[in-house]
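Aim 2 progress update. The chain analyzed this quarter is reproduced below.
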Amino acid sequence: MHDPGDVLTNARIELARFPLVLDALLNDLDASAWRARPAAAEWAPVEIVCHLRDEEVEDFGARLQVVLDGGRRFTPIDPERWATERRYLEDDGPRAFAAFRERRAASLGWLATVTPPRLTTVVPHPRTGGLSGLDILAAWVEHDRLHLTQLGATLARLWATRWTALHTEYAGPIPYTVT
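Predicted structure tokens:
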């Protein structure tokens, strides 16, 4: 078993670092790059950021609150549907990112009030059998990192597409092959 205080401390550090990394990647991205999809079925940067913004409160924060409140079930979510219904692709990238940063700052403030022993409570979950607060914290950081990888691959493809006459493939395999 992992020490709840150690998990909480490390998760807070990583969750605080993520907006800084995103800011470095997204700073000065123009409007067309915010909306450019690297491949037809993949998300543009604005869609990734809108997803992160909404997941911050409606997934990870909400589920952790259920654990802390001693709840017995999580509210179902459908992030893929949200992307379409909420029209992520049409959103304003910098505004969505500012909202994400605000929500993350609020999450970090809230996490500073959490007492580590409360994180060991497990709430039933249909896919995993159950999720503790520790599971949710670890998954929250992992979620950030998975979307950082997705965003990095998207930006690599957009860069390679911008300079098609140049041999960017020399760097290595470019994600999201253009068909």
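The helical segments are 4-26, 31-35, 45-68, 79-85, 93-111, 133-162. The radius of gyration is 18 Å. These observations will guide the mutagenesis experiments scheduled for the next reporting period.
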